[in-house]
Amino acid sequence: MASRRGVIICCGVTVAIIVILVVVAITLLFTVFKPKEPKVQPHPVILQRIEFELLPILKLNLTLLVSVTVKNPNYGSFKYDETKVLIYYRGTQIGEGPIDAGSISSHESEDFNTVIEITAEKMLGSKDFWQDLGGGHFNFTSESKVYGKATLFKLLKKHARGRTTCDITVYLTGRDPDSTCKTKMNI
């Protein structure tokens, strides 16, 4: 009789400990270890090269360096798909730069850089080209969309998508471009 009572108490304590451990594990999975949005920090656009000649024929070539830093705040990795940074002039796409697919380890950051070439031929279709040329600056918009997945213990996976848009002003005098960027991430 006494040994049966001891077995029941031992089983009860074991079940209670297992229940407590499961509750703690689930609480940790959905609080501390819950996948979080990667932090995207755009950097000012850099004008790497400008070639401008008005005569004998119009020549305008720009090379822009667009870069962002992505920080993964998760306890698991963040894998992202290949994407492109697109450059628009007055609503028309005039350039693009690739960003290869990859992954960012737990609590790590990675810098993404892409170089985009822009020529006057791609911009001449706009009715505002000559007015902007006379004003000494061009306004561009860049856009990139990132799709990825945050993974924890190969068990908990959350899809993430993000969009970064930048308004960029490039001056023909060669002065550093002005850029203002906005980022929105959803997980």
Automatic annotation (TrEMBL):
The keyword Membrane applies. This is Late embryogenesis abundant protein LEA-2 subgroup domain-containing protein. It comes from the Eukaryota. Keywords: Membrane, Transmembrane, Transmembrane helix. The keyword Membrane applies. InterPro entries: Lea14-like_2, LEA_2. It holds the Pfam family LEA_2. It comes from Aristolochia fimbriata (White veined hardy Dutchman's pipe vine). Residues 68-159 form the Late embryogenesis abundant protein LEA-2 subgroup domain. The chain crosses the membrane at residues 6-33.
